[in-house]
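hi! just following up on the protien thing from before. the input was this:
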Amino acid sequence: MLLETALTKYLKQNFSNSLSFNEFIDVTPPAPEDDTSYLIYIHVPFCEELCPYCSFNRYIFEKDLAEQYFRALNLEIQMYKDMGFDFKSVYVGGGTPTVMPREISSLLTGLRKNFGVEEVSLETNPNHLTDEIVQVLVDSGVNRLSVGVQSFDDSMLKQMSRYHKYGSGEEIKDRLSRVLGRLDTLNVDMIFNFPTQTIEMLHNDIATIKEIRSDQVTFYPLMVSDITKNELARRFGSISYRQEKSFYNEIYNLLNDEYTIGTAWCFSRKKTMIDEYIVDYDEYVGVGSGSFGYVQGQCLANTFSVPDYIAQVNAGKFPLMARKEFSLKERARYYFMMRLFGSSLDLEMAERVFSGNFQKTMWKEILGFRLIGSLQKNGKILRLTRKGLYWWVIMMREFFTGVNNFRESCRSTSGI
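and the predicted 3d structure came back as:
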């Protein structure tokens, strides 16, 4: 426990510094590399209600504003096309992207027509698992549908303010069962380590997942940003990481017989897309208000104000509000963390990406994690050990918490 606590403390400071964007200025994205296909992340910030633990950029749904927003999304995507970008994969997150299913369908149809798109992943909530909406998504070429469930326990759903929106755990289970098989992959998003969650609740959640035979399940650890800390404490009590490791071990042990590791916290029955597209794609473009992109070592952030986003795009300007150019060390650390989050890292490929400087730059980290038993080296491949899987859960938890804190600073800067 002492090592985990020390790592959490170190990473909080480390990621806080790495995600410090000192200038909020009008910027333009760098041009694409020749003959390179990118992933495009599309952010749809609208929700019928706002969940207390969520730090993503989100707004209460307003139909007129959302219609303007979708028109602006199409314009921003066209701006990237005009620059020469080509997109192989699409990930649509939120918010609740299916809040306007016809607009999403039109957007995805346009992407498939204008780019070399091969796979589409999209997020939704249980109340949108209707025959009509699901058929629209199937017809639009969605391969992977990720459903935000978080828990099947009714008491937990009530504490999260999700019970009245999405129904009981049993009702959510029934909706998922009806959808299974209609798309290539049905992923169920869950959260573990809420203060009031017990090991019995976790066991029941996992048993439900296995009963449904969901194609994929992603178990996120609770991520507490500065802005959500007080509200979560008010609803659930003091936030602690004391149970996190034991919860994660139960998740791994109970899923390991039917699922394989896609990332440290994503388990799949077959090879498929995952939520953490940053594992499979070194570079990606972000469109929509509050989205992030990572191109040629630069992290790019769009404005978090929806009205400002619409106005800038309509004026023919990229709606980027901030840019952070990563140093060689920061880029190598990011690559190291993301590749190993997917369980392995090819050192020969890493050397090609970093022109022979990867191991020179990262030797201390590689040695340190090997010494504590988190990494093993097989030839030119680094792999996470069983122990290392949980260490990477800690690392990614703190990375995304840092991203969430940055989101809140952007929202504050935007006057939201």
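The longest strand covers residues 86-94.
The mean pLDDT is 89.
cheers
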